[in-house]
Amino acid sequence: MDHTETTHRAGEAANMGKIIFYEDNNFSGHHFECCNDCEDLLSRLSRCNSIKVESGCFMIYEKPNYSGNQYYLKRGEYPDFHHWMGVNESVSSCRHIPTEPGMFNMRLYERIEFGGQVMDLVDDCPSVMDRFHVNDIFSCNVKNGNWLFYEHPNYRGKMYLIRPGEYKRFSEWGGRSARVGSIKRIMDYLGSGTALVIESDANTTMGKIIFYEDRNFQGRSHECSSDCADLHTYFNRCNSIRVESGCFMVYERPNYMGNQYYLRRGEYSDNQRMIGINDCVRSCRMIPQHQGSYRMRLYERADMTGQMHELVDDCPNVQDQLSMSDFNSCNVMDGHWLLYDQPNYKGRVYYLRPGEYRRYSDWGGISPRIGSIRRITDFN
User: Fold this and answer.
1) Which residues span the domain enclosing 253?
2) Which residues contact 171 (CB under 8 A, 6 or more apart)?
3) pLDDT at residue 202, rounded to an integer
4) Nearest of 4, 225, 196, 3 to residue 100 by alpha carbon
5) CATH of the domain at 83
6) 317 and 349 both lie in a single domain
7) Domains in the chain, number
8) Separation between Cα atoms, residue 278 and residue 270, nearest integer Å
9) What is the C-alpha to C-alpha distance for residues 60 and 82, in angstroms, rounded to an integer?
């Protein structure tokens, strides 16, 4: 089937994007502007060494007709192919990714032509193996939203754009094998300088964070309005941060790993003094605004087994309130939460989004000890 035809036509007027391809590094040489899909860029330019995405999101492909290695680009400047994680100057086709407001919904199957085990997905999945206990996805049916498949867990490795439609075998999304390590919704549509983030419950929020290489907001800077798995491609070090709107989690290692730090709107002129982090800031997550109830379940043992406790409110002292402090798994049903390894919201902090965490390592914990828990409610 033609996946292009399955794109929702009702929102075409709002789905605007613009990408500019340049033959040479640093946006020089012959260039070509594009606002839609293009199956053969070679007729427009002989090579591509830098790209500007002025609005919208695009998928670029190594070969014509949307084949070969794929790379996801959101609004920003890419002065050489290393910035989009490419391996050479070969960019031969591109797809514009239309905005998909509303729900995200897809079904995964362990066999071709929608056979075998059925797995429903409505949110991001950092590890397909951890959530569904399978590594190979042979077919899928995307009912709502645009998605990215990654070859490895935590959104790493080769990626593939999955648009609404039926994919009867992995070759139809460009996969060389059935291996799918992680899956992510495409939510960070950018246009006119604003990020629109769409959660599965259709709530929206905006956020903006600016990283500076030197203290007191000096030196090279990088603005971000969505999740970023590897900030090191934009700056070498980070010594100050300004959060202009929204709430963010910053991480000392790429792919949302290492020590985590929660930042709300404000100015952090000296990271080490005000936050406690050194100049290593390697990834960040924007925390979507949540409206409604908060609910999570904590389990004594891994894989949601053993004694269970349910929380709907802040808990300044887990031991006092629940008579235990070691939890090996949890299920966040509603809202966004912070776990602390000490009482009264002190110590190491861990960000939990809606989803299942089958072992404490899934939320980045170094042990199952939880001292306190609180809801993230201070959006601005």
Assistant:
1) 205-287
2) none
3) 31
4) 196
5) 2.60.20.10
6) yes
7) 4
8) 9
9) 14
315 and 370 part of one domain: yes
Cα-only R_g, the chain: 21
In what order do the strands lie in the sheet containing 93-97?
Answer: 67-73, 57-63, 93-97
CA 228 from centre of chain: 7
Backbone angles phi, psi at 65, to 5 degrees: 60, 35
Tell me: pLDDT of 55 over 90. no
Q: Tell me which of 241, 269, 287 is where a domain ends.
A: 287
The reply to whether 200 falls in a domain is: no
With contact defined as beta carbons under 8 Å apart, do 306 and 260 qualify? Answer: no
Q: Which amino acid is at 269?
A: S
**Domain boundary residue, one of 246, 269, 287:** 287
Name the band, by pLDDT with cuts 50, 70 and 90, for residue 188.
low
**Residue linked to tokens 């993230």:** 376
Same domain assignment for residues 30 and 92:
yes
Mean pLDDT of 235-250: 93
90-115 residue pLDDT tens: 899 998 887 766 678 899 999 999 99
Q: How far apart are CA 261 and CA 216, in angstroms?
A: 19
**What's the first-to-final CA gap in the chain, in angstroms?**
44
Classify residue 193: in a domain, yes or no. Answer: no
Report H helices in 60-195: 128-132
Question: For residue 355, is it within any domain?
Answer: yes
State whether 11 and 89 are in the same domain. Answer: yes
What pLDDT was estimated at residue 377?
Answer: 87
> Of 101, 4, 89, 96, which is closest to residue 53 (Cα–Cα)?
96
Tokens of 378: 């201070």
Using an 8 Å Cβ cutoff, are 81 and 49 in contact?
Answer: yes
Q: Are residues 90 and 27 in the same domain?
A: yes
* Residue 209 forms part of a structural domain: yes
For the full predicted model, state whether its pTM sits above 0.90: no
Tell me the per-residue pLDDT of 265-275, one tens digit each, with 9 for 90 and over.
Answer: 999 999 999 98
Q: Is 326 helix (H, G, I), strand (E, B) or coil?
A: strand
Which among 6-10, 33-37, 223-227, 370-374 has the top mean pLDDT? 370-374
Residues 283 and 211 in one domain: yes
